[in-house]
Write a structure and sequence with these properties.
Blueprint (H helix, E strand, L loop, with lengths): L5 H6 L6 H7 L7 E3 L5 E3 L1 H6 L7 E7 L9 H14 L4 E5 L4 H4 L8 E2 L2 E4 L1 H4 L6 H21 L6 E6 L3 E3 L9 E3 L10 E3 L1 E3 L4 H8 L3 H10 L1 E5 L4 E3 H4 L2 H7 L7 E5 L4 E4 L14 H10 L2 E5 L4 H16 L5 E6 L1 H7 L12 H19 L5 E6 L6 H13 L3 E5 L1 H4 L5 H13 L14 H11 L5 E3 L2 H15 L4 E4 L19 E10 L4 E6 L18 E2 L5 E2 L3
Parallel strand pairs: 3-16, 3-17, 4-15, 4-16, 8-11, 17-18, 18-19, 20-22, 21-23
Antiparallel strand pairs: 1-2, 2-14, 5-6, 6-14, 7-12, 9-10, 12-13, 14-15, 22-23, 24-25
Helix pairs in contact: 4-18, 7-11, 9-11, 14-15, 15-16
Length: 558
């Protein structure tokens, strides 16, 4: 039997008009701003009007470290949301928007897969409602205004050697990591070094995703530090008088995007900070709004639990005043075999011993998530080639770690394949057994916070940072930023900073190469190892295979 591709399944979807999806949530037509027939933004006025409602249960979906074998975290998030609705629960899904950079690089789309997808998946993975373009434009406006201020006399006395605001573009382009700007003569300004990050690493993105409303967003934007004077006095975006205009550009982008699953269940897709170089969660406003509209909200955190879930707990939950009632940790038999040393080309063959050997990575994540005081269920995302013995090996291992594993076949069967997982997750969430607490208190020194994450989550021996970095952290503490959480920018492929070191390594160190203060977003970024805040394209980028066919349809995006 020929298996349909994700995009073939998505194109055959029986989508309902987005106004009908809004009606299911009690959102009237006047409170929806449609973008075509199948997506819409929800007005701030509606969001303000439901603040007093009781919040539903929050379910976080995370995963083991990603491997080329595939884990299916977003697919499981969608499948679980559909499964909860199928068993009679009122559930919503909240995920991030996709960045163009990885879509045209190597990652592919971010809308789920098989019969557990959010649609319209092509639009979601391309321009969608223009949120990322708005964020890029707002960021670029600030960049231009900083340079313009310096050009017209520099009354703030900015030291052009200490402009810390980098530019952004939503594409993987390694050539832009470090550049020289303003060449070509007096009329072009003062020559200086500059550089680009990818848009999803922008502090503007982080501010939008952590803001509660437009007023809060404008304050956060104004609080962003863009440069320093010669005597190290910080210069803020509000000093440049850019915060108001930036907020205008982000007015519509701030509103959550409402779409639907293949089974016509509602989903918010909003915001998109990466989890390896940013905090990796969808927007606070989308999650908190969903919690007022549904009894259960299924959301996800990027990459493995060592990155996305850690930042969800320590940054998003801390900032938004929310906490998960249950965590679903996604794993696959294939990924266990890869962690057990099997090459991707050999994954089809049954190998129970390799599965057992690779389970150490899963066990590390289970223990880490439990350390936050929340119950953990392992979802075994089923592949058709998985043998019963291999699945049983994973289940037995999970049981030995004090948790339970449930096989879910949502990719092939949609909600019918995820009902068992949905029932158990709902039972745990309803039981109210979670006792959530962040990993570290606000008052802990910044470097000690980094050490806490490195030792307790990565199981490293130490954090390596030179005197310049330690002195910078102390200076920020003296300026009143010591209470901020830290955002570790690290490879997603390993607990260590070596992307090739799979499994559950110990005895390693975490070198911190650079630290950045995101005063508006409200965290300190620690750039670790060789991680880049501007990715590059692979040798053969996905873009080489993306084109329009004779029918005008997109091919090669997935």
């Amino acid at each position: 039997m020929t298996v349909k591709t994700d995009i073939e399944i998505a194109r055959a979807a029986n989508k309902r008009p987005i106004l009908e999806i809004g009606e299911k949530l009690g959102i009237g037509a006047d409170d929806l701003l449609p973008y075509g027939h199948d997506k819409a933004k929800v007005s701030q006025a509606f969001i303000n009007g439901i603040e007093a409602r009781k919040s539903g249960k929050l379910i976080l979906v995370t995963a083991i470290n990603p491997t080329p074998a595939g884990e299916g975290k977003t697919t499981t998030t969608v499948g679980l949301g559909d499964g909860l609705n199928a068993i009679g629960k009122k559930a919503m899904i909240c995920i991030r928007e996709a960045s163009l950079g990885p879509n045209f690089g190597m990652k592919g789309g971010a809308a789920g897969g098989g019969y557990a997808q959010i649609v319209p998946m092509e639009e979601m993975n391309l321009h969608f409602t223009g949120d990322f373009h708005a964020i890029t434009s707002a960021h670029s406006l600030l960049s231009a205004m900083i340079d313009n201020h310096i050009y017209w006399g520099n009354t703030l006395e900015i030291d052009i050697r200490r402009v810390v605001w980098r530019r952004v573009v939503d594409m993987n382009d390694r050539a832009l990591r470090q550049i020289t700007a303003s060449l070509g003569g007096v009329s072009n300004g003062f020559p200086s070094e500059a550089g680009f990050d990818i848009t999803v690493a922008s502090e503007v993105m982080a501010c939008l995703c952590l803001a509660s409303d437009l007023k809060d967003l404008e304050k956060r934007l104004g609080d962003m530090i863009v440069a320093y004077t010669r005597d190290r006095k910080p210069i803020y975006a509000r000093d440049i008088k850019a915060d108001g205009a930036m907020t205008v550009l982000l007015k519509d982008a701030m509103q959550p995007n409402l779409v639907q699953t293949l089974e016509n269940n509602p989903a918010f897709v909003h915001g998109g900070p990466f989890a390896n170089i940013a905090h990796g969660c969808n927007s606070v406003i989308a999650t908190t709004t969903a919690l007022k509209l549904a009894d259960y909200v299924v959301t996800e955190a990027g990459f493995g639990a060592d990155l996305g879930a850690e930042k969800f707990m320590n940054i998003k939950c801390r900032k938004a005043g929310i906490a998960p009632d249950c965590v679903v940790l996604v794993a696959t038999v294939r990924a266990m075999k890869m962690n057990g040393g099997i090459a991707k080309a050999d994954l089809a063959a049954e190998n129970v011993d390799a599965v057992k050997a690779g389970c150490a990575n899963l066990g590390r994540h289970i223990g880490n998530v439990k350390s936050f005081g929340v119950p953990v269920v392992v979802a075994i995302n089923h592949f058709t080639g998985d043998s019963d013995a291999e699945v049983q090996a994973v289940s037995d291992y999970v049981a030995s770690q004090g948790s339970e594993a449930i096989v879910s076949k949502h990719w092939a069967d949609g909600s019918k394949g995820s009902e068992a997982l949905a029932r158990r997750v709902a039972e745990i969430a309803d039981a109210g057994v979670a006792n959530f607490a962040p990993l570290y208190p606000d008052e802990m020194p910044l470097f000690q916070k980094m050490e806490t994450i490195a030792k307790r989550i990565y199981h490293a021996d130490e954090v390596l940072a030179d005197k310049k970095i330690r002195d910078q952290l102390k200076a920020w503490e003296e300026q009143g930023y010591g209470h901020l959480p830290v955002c570790m920018a690290k490879t997603q492929y390993s607990f260590s900073t070596d992307p090739n070191l799979r499994g559950a390594p110990t005895g390693h160190s975490v070198p911190v190469r650079e630290v950045r203060l995101s005063a508006g977003a409200g965290f300190v970024v620690a750039v670790c190892g060789d991680i880049m805040t501007m990715p590059g394209l692979p040798r053969v980028p996905s873009a080489e295979n993306i084109r329009l066919n004779d029918a005008g349809e997109v091919e090669g995006l997935f």
